[in-house]
Amino acid sequence: MQALLLEPRAWDWSFPSGPRLCPGVTNRGEAHLELNAFRRKHDCALVISGDSLEVCLKYYEYEFMELACQCPAVVCCRCAPTQKAQIVRLLQERTGRLTCAVGDGGNDVSMIQESDCGVGVEGKEGKQASLAADFSITQFRHLGRLLMVHGRNSYKRSAALSQFVIHRSLCISTMQAVFSSVFYFASVPLYQGFLIIGYSTVYTMFPVFSLVLDKDVESEVAMLYPELYKDLLKGRPLSYKTFLIWVLISIYQGSTIMYGALLLFESEFVHIVAISFTSLILTELLMVALTIQTWHWLMTVAELLSLACYIASLVFLHEFIDVYFIATLSFLWKVSVITLVSCLPLYVLKYLRRRFSPPSYSKLTS
């Protein structure tokens, strides 16, 4: 967002042309002259009072917002609470961007509630702003860490988690579709009972949700290089492109596991279930490891715990899986081959991408 909304006590701008103070305007003619004069300025901060702002927004709302969005900074001083909320609303409508409002008093509540993200500062003016805000901080200097570290990590983690949940569900759906198409579209489920429930909960839940602990750079690096935040403004971690990539990965892996199980099974249908389901669990665990940028000890525990739960539950799944078959060497090499074919190409592509087209943060961690 290119405009800064606050109520200054004193300011010291260091722009090349210096700050531009818009004198008090009382009618339409004066507002027209001042806006035309400001249009000829470059690299100037706009400082305007509440009375002048009301006149400009009344007669030249579009022109004023166009000029304000082109400024390095805009300071609106001595504004009424309704004016603060109006400015936030106009910024949302004119720019289509998300807005963040920061306030420390009761007169900032309307502005905070109007914005997409409100931050309240607990200060001498009470806690009205912090109670009405989405986030509350005790000092204004904490705002940088809230945005650059916690905000950035939260966005990237949410993007990775949501797309991986889609991948997990689409992968098993692709396997069911392939299985039904091979057997003349018969309405026979591939997995039944506890298998389908355990896949979504016990076997893959902990590693998937451990992605909320992932981070690409350390907090100190994120604070030192705020340029890393620009990637979020472009929407690259969560976009149509990344969604389609995960869809293609899901279709590829689901098809590979199912066709591989159908190709390598020997005689009984229960062997297809054993081979494909075990390969599916191992593929999901390896895909979580592929997605992680920085390992946390809880991630390792989640991976090992999920694998241990699946191995331990095989004793009770004799109704769906042949326990004697999974103890044979034939089962082990078939599962290993299918899992390798489904995951190895993705690991190779990730290595090549980081080698020839590394992301911006990798240059700071190498």
Automatic annotation (TrEMBL):
Coiled coil (residue ranges): none
InterPro entries cross-referenced by the UniProt entry: ATPase_P-typ_TM_dom_sf, HAD-like_sf, HAD_sf, P_typ_ATPase, P_typ_ATPase_c
Domain P-type ATPase C-terminal residue range list: 131-358
Pfam families linked: PhoLip_ATPase_C
Molecular-function annotations in GO: ATP binding; ATP hydrolysis activity; ATPase-coupled intramembrane lipid transporter activity; metal ion binding
Location in or out of the cell: Membrane
Membrane topology value: Multi-pass membrane protein
Designated name of the protein: P-type ATPase C-terminal domain-containing protein
Superkingdom: Eukaryota
An annotated GO cellular component: plasma membrane
Presence of keyword Transmembrane: yes
Matching SUPFAM superfamilies: Calcium ATPase, transmembrane domain M (SSF81665), HAD-like (SSF56784)
Keywords: Magnesium, Membrane, Metal-binding, Transmembrane, Transmembrane helix
BP GO annotations: endocytosis; phospholipid translocation; retrograde vesicle-mediated transport, Golgi to endoplasmic reticulum
Transmembrane segments: 165-185, 191-213, 243-263, 269-290, 297-317, 323-349
Native source species: Cervus elaphus hippelaphus
